[in-house]
Amino acid sequence: MNTHPSRPALQGALDALPLFIPALPFAFVFGVVVAEAGIPELLGWSSSPIIFGGAIQVTLFTLIAEGASVGAAVSAALIVGARHMLYSVTLAPRFQNQPTWFRWVGAYVLIDQVFVLSQINPIDEPMAFRRYFLGAGFTFWTLWMIFTALGVVLGPVIPAEWGVEFAAPVLFVSLMMAASNRRDKLASAAVAMGVTYSLAALPNRTGILVAVLVSVCVMLFATRKSST
Amino acid sequence: MIALAIVLTGIGSYAMRAFFIFVLARYTFPPILLRALEYVAPTVMAALVISMLTTPEGEIAAGLPELLGLICTGVAAKATGNHILALVAGMGTFWLIGAII
Questions:
Q1: Nearest CA of chain A to the CA of B35: how many Å?
Q2: Whether residue A215 sits in one domain with residue A155
Q3: Is residue A81 located within the same domain as residue A145?
Q4: How many structural domains compose chain A?
Q5: For residue A166, what is the DSSP state?
Q6: Which residues, 6 or more positions from A10, have their beta carbon under 8 angstroms from its beta carbon?
């Protein structure tokens, strides 16, 4: 881990590249969902720059395809994306010594992978942090624009029996291990898995948010007990 | 109507990402909150993995290939710290076990 990269923007871009490989099949899943919802290709793709969040985009179009109202589809999609509020809180201290323009632009590329990269490569120097964040964020952004366009045009070209969507949980296990650099963090992940499973039937994946809040409180309580 | 839904979701998802960055811009974080925030990354990733492996009804949507694939991913990620190797290990195990059974 290099916490003081000499070329932070380049380092961010390079760190983002391997994390995009598992997002590739997701871009094609997105294309299939848009096609099945009968949404014009360009309109469907426009959600990539406007929303920039794979799971949010897929949820929105899946519900529209099922005939949900605009209000129901939008609120379900936003609940699926509600974890981004936790990213916003978590990164708020790092954005305090940053210029206002970066708060506006940085928030736009604050996605799962960029968040985890900023957590596992904590850069203290404000300008280096900013360049690393933007390097990673806009590398991911550019690739997502290109591959969701391909996904929408090519649609279901990847045979379903390959199971390439499995790359998504694989990526998140890998990110989880990278973010669990201490034993108590690994324990927090284990707690979160159990709680999420027990809440898996909650509508619109609300369980994700509840599980994170519950496991963070459990860990605060557990580590307080052991340290006193 | 679809365009309206896309724009509303775009505004909403941007607002969720930007909200606390702006609201907490001048706020001094108490130590307990900073300690709590350290657990956000591992727990969100863990919660996402489980939610990808369960149906909206709460049933497990994964078999032996998925389970072994994710265990190999975790071991490879911990041992190497390399996401590409972890991906190869996880997908390789998933495809291999899937082909055998």
A1: 8
A2: no
A3: yes
A4: 2
A5: G
A6: A135
Q: Is A107–B17 a contact, with Cβ atoms under 8 angstroms apart?
A: yes
The answer to whether the CB atoms of A172 and B49 lie below 8 A apart is yes
**Residue A155 sits in the same domain as residue A195:** no
Q: pLDDT tens, position by position, for chain A (228 residues)?
A: 445 678 999 999 999 999 998 888 888 889 888 988 889 999 999 999 999 999 899 999 988 988 888 998 998 899 889 999 999 999 999 999 999 999 999 999 999 999 999 999 989 999 999 999 999 999 999 999 999 999 998 876 767 777 777 888 998 899 999 999 999 999 999 999 999 999 999 887 888 889 999 999 999 999 986 554
Task: Indicate the residue of B12, B21, B51 with minimum beta-carbon distance to A103.
Answer: B21
Q: Which amino acid is at A219?
A: M
Interface contact flag, B44 A212, Cβ < 8 Å: yes
Test the A interface: residue of B19, B24, B40, B54 with most A CBs within 10 Å: B40
pLDDT of residue A212: 93
Q: A195 and A132 in one domain? A: no
Q: Are A124 and A2 in contact (CB under 8 A)?
A: no
A171 falls within a domain: no
Give a yes or no: residue A1 inside a domain: no
For A114-133, write each residue's pLDDT tens digit: 999 999 998 999 999 999 99
Nearest-Cα distance to chain B for A66, in Å, is: 13
Q: Do B41 and A120 touch (CB under 8 A)?
A: yes
| Domain span holding position A203 | 180-228
User: Residue B69 and residue A166: Cβ atoms within 8 Å?
Assistant: yes
Same-domain status, A39 and A136: yes
Number of C-beta neighbours around residue A171 at 10 A: 29
The reply to whether A142 and A190 lie within a common domain is no
> B57 to chain A, minimum CA–CA distance in Å?
5
Provide the shortest C-alpha distance from residue B76 to chain A (in Å): 8
B/e letters for A41-77, b = 16+ CB within 10 Å, e = fewer, are eeebbbbbebbbbbbbbbbbbbbbbeebebeebbbbb
Q: Does A225 lie in the same domain as A129?
A: no
Residue A205 falls inside a structural domain: yes
Residue in A83, A108, A77 with CA at minimum distance from that of residue A210? A83
Question: Which chain A positions have a beta carbon within 8 Å of B12's beta carbon?
Answer: 74, 77-78, 81
Please check whether residue A129 lies inside any domain of the structure: yes
Indicate the domain borders of chain B: 1-29, 39-100
